[in-house]
């Protein structure tokens, strides 16, 4: 699942790089959000499956090859630490949902390795067979939480819901000299790092064209600082 999620993130990046066309004026940038949605849902499904398997093992624990489990999980932990470190160095795993989805898959596998190591040591040292399913449930809950968070953020963008700072943006525009009203406001996220904004602004009818152009330039500059990269404003 980690390999698939990383591959999906890479393919989404490649497709998103394609140029915009007359049929797709924003290009293929939403592909990254679709990929992060798939990765988020996959995390939820994986967590549910792990919990389902763990419940059965509490009542009927199978024989576990503890030493093999310890060796494999230690190798897995090392590999995932290296991959997570590389991703943190070279990618935006906080704000880019596509990268966050791939990164969370790696983190979930890392948590699984930590849980497996702990469970193997407890079974070797104390013979506690229930440590295996218990570790699985704890890890699965953490993975489930990450999956839900990622899926909610992705669906929020797909539904074209507004970013959090919309009211502050409107108040900023209204505070400009010569602005009477701001109406028909629409703000949405195209993809991670690309927000769009449209509105109508009523201005003082005595303003010159040069003054309205200066006002428009000032507002667009402020919008860039508010993380709005694409704006269309009707005066």
Describe the structure concisely.
The protein has helices spanning 2-16, 31-59, 66-90, 97-126, 131-158, 166-174, 209-225, and strands at residues 179-191, 194-203, 230-234. It is mainly alpha-helical and 235 residues long.
| Distance, first to last CA | 51 Å
Q: Major beta sheet, specifics?
A: 3 strands, mixed
Shape from CA axes? elongated
Task: Please mark out the parts with pLDDT under 50 across 5 or more consecutive residues, or reply none.
Answer: none
Beta strands, count: 3
Cα-atom Rg, whole angstroms?
A: 25 Å
Helix and strand composition category: mainly alpha
Mean pLDDT across the residues is 90
Q: What is the helix tally?
A: 7
Write down the secondary-structure element order.
HHHHHHEEHE
Strand order of the largest sheet: 1-2-3
Beta-strand percent range: 5-15%
Helix content class: 55-70%
Describe the structure.
The protein is mainly alpha-helical and 235 residues long. It is 65% helix and 12% strand. It has seven helices and three strands. The protein has helices spanning 2-16, 31-59, 66-90, 97-126, 131-158, 166-174, 209-225, and strands at residues 179-191, 194-203, 230-234. The protein has a three-stranded mixed beta sheet. Helix 7 (209-225) links the parallel strand 2 and strand 3 (230-234). Helix 2 (31-59) runs antiparallel to helix 5 and helix 4 runs antiparallel to helix 5. The longest helix is centred in the middle third of the chain and has 30 residues, at 97-126. The mean pLDDT is 90.
């Amino acid at each position: 699942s980690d390999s698939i999620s990383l591959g999906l993130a890479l393919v989404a990046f490649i497709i998103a790089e394609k140029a915009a066309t007359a049929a797709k004026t924003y290009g293929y940038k939403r592909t990254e959000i679709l990929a992060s949605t798939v990765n988020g849902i996959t995390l939820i499904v994986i967590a549910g499956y792990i919990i389902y398997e763990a419940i059965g093992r509490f009542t009927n624990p199978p024989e576990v090859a503890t030493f093999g489990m310890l060796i494999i999980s230690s190798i897995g932990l090392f590999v995932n630490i290296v991959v997570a470190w590389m991703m943190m160095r070279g990618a935006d795993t906080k704000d880019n949902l596509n990268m966050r989805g791939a990164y969370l898959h790696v983190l979930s596998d890392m948590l699984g390795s930590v849980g497996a190591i702990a469970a193997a040591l407890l079974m070797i040292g104390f013979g506690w067979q229930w440590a295996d399913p218990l570790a699985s449930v704890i890890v699965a809950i953490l993975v489930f939480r990450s999956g839900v968070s990622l899926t909610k953020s992705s669906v929020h963008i797909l539904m074209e819901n507004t970013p959090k700072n919309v009211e502050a943006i409107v108040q900023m525009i209204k505070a400009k000299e010569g602005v009477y009203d701001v109406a028909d406001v629409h703000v949405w996220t195209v993809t991670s790092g690309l927000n769009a904004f449209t509105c109508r602004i009523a201005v003082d009818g005595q303003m010159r064209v040069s003054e309205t152009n200066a006002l428009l330039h000032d507002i667009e500059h402020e919008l860039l600082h508010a993380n709005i990269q694409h704006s269309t404003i009707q005066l």
